[in-house]
Design goal:
- There is one protein chain.
- It contains nine helices and eleven strands.
- The protein has 234 residues and is of the alpha+beta class.
- The chain folds into two domains: 126 residues, Jelly Rolls; 84 residues, Jelly Rolls (Sandwich), CATH 2.60.120.10.
- The chain is globular.
- Keywords: DNA-binding, Transcription, Transcription regulation.
């Protein structure tokens, strides 16, 4: 099997900064560690800081009116969190929870806006991050409407594999271990499917030799094959 070559990645927020900008932002921040399951921000809280993940993975969830948490996205190394609430002067629209141990930089809102005033070119980067996330949400919403369970899961796992490959290179055989340690329940919440639907889809993808699974661990054995399932419109 030829090694998998993911599509050219779009650099995360931190990687897109130059060394001078990174140094200035680090000087304005305080380092902080978050344990697994620890909340980084709460939905509904006042917006008084932004967070940049240096290491680790987190999930973004929103609470429904009946009290269920819906997974909206994952965030990983280099990602900027809670910027839209700070810049828009609104309360936080989602909760962010650590999926793995996280090391992060926490920047008070006033210092972050001061950093942006001193480095105005970064404003476009922040805006681009916000727009990209809206585009990603729209694309996944369309997939939920038009795709069946197995294809939706293949699309999600393919996207997660390409994201993970930006931070950890594929293995020599081309396989990619998905970085965010998501449970079947979390995958189902993200793709708007039951846990049973996810389990059946995982079994099918495993049977076809496309993935390997363990507890909160998924390895994409055949990335091109999984992408072919994700892109199959029949």
């Amino acid at each position: 099997m030829p090694p998998y070559a993911p599509s050219p990645p779009r650099p995360g927020f931190w990687a897109a900064l130059d060394h001078v900008q990174q140094a200035a932002l680090r000087a304005a921040a305080r380092p902080r560690h978050f344990a697994v399951k620890a909340p980084l921000v709460y939905q509904g809280d006042e917006s008084d800081h932004v967070i940049i993940i240096e290491r680790g993975w987190a999930k973004v969830t929103s609470a429904t009116v009946d009290g269920h948490d819906v997974v909206l996205a994952v965030r990983g190394p280099g990602d900027l969190l809670a910027e839209s609430a700070v810049l828009g002067g609104r309360t936080r629209s989602a909760t962010v929870t650590a999926l793995s141990p996280i090391r992060a930089l926490v920047v008070p809102a006033a210092r972050f806006t001061g950093f942006l005033d001193a480095h105005p070119q970064v404003w476009m980067l922040v805006t681009g991050t916000f727009v990209q996330r809206l585009d990603d949400s729209d694309r996944r919403l369309k997939a939920h409407v038009t795709s069946k369970g197995t294809r939706r899961l293949a699309q999600l796992l393919s996207d997660l594999a390409e994201l993970s490959a930006q931070h950890t290179p594929p293995a020599p055989d081309g396989s990619i271990e998905i970085g965010p340690p998501l449970s079947q329940e979390e995958l189902g919440s993200w793709m708007d499917a039951s846990r049973e639907t996810v389990a059946r889809a995982l079994n099918g993808l495993r049977r076809d030799g496309l993935i390997r699974t363990g507890w909160r661990r998924i390895t994409v054995v055949d990335p091109p094959g999984l992408r072919a399932v994700a892109d199959d419109h029949d």
